[in-house]
Design a protein that fits this description.
The chain has 115 residues and is mainly alpha-helical. The chain has helices at 2-26, 50-62, 75-81, 95-107; strands at 35-38, 69-72.
């Protein structure tokens, strides 16, 4: 669907600009830094095409993974647990969902490699 293609295009363009700006700012210093990005989960797998586009967004995030930037993969744990990790609204994470996000981020570490 066009709306998803347009959203993916704007997401890609905007995130690329943001990441380029961060790296340009940080290039003038030797101070270590980290960036952690949480990928997307699909709260509505019943919608035709939704899984394809969530995975397309997540695949684009992988382009930014490097020594400073790590991507927290919550797509697969959320897919495995399904509605058990979503709040009553069926859209946002519940306590268990946020625990998965926190543990996934924690597993990526807190210490950057120096440039």
């Amino acid at each position: 669907p066009y709306v998803f293609e347009e959203a993916l295009y704007h997401f890609s363009t905007n995130l690329t600009a943001i990441m380029n700006d961060i790296h340009e700012i940080k290039s003038s210093t030797a101070a270590p830094f980290i960036i952690r990005i949480v990928d997307l989960y699909n709260p509505a797998p019943q919608l035709q095409g939704s899984d394809y586009y969530v995975q397309a967004f997540n695949q684009h995030l992988q382009y930014f993974a490097n020594t400073h930037t790590k991507i927290a993969d919550i797509y697969y744990p959320f897919k495995y647990y399904g509605k058990k990790v979503l709040f009553l609204d069926g859209l946002h994470p519940n306590g268990k969902g946020y625990q998965i996000i926190a543990e996934t981020l924690h597993s990526l570490g807190y210490y950057p490699l120096t440039p």
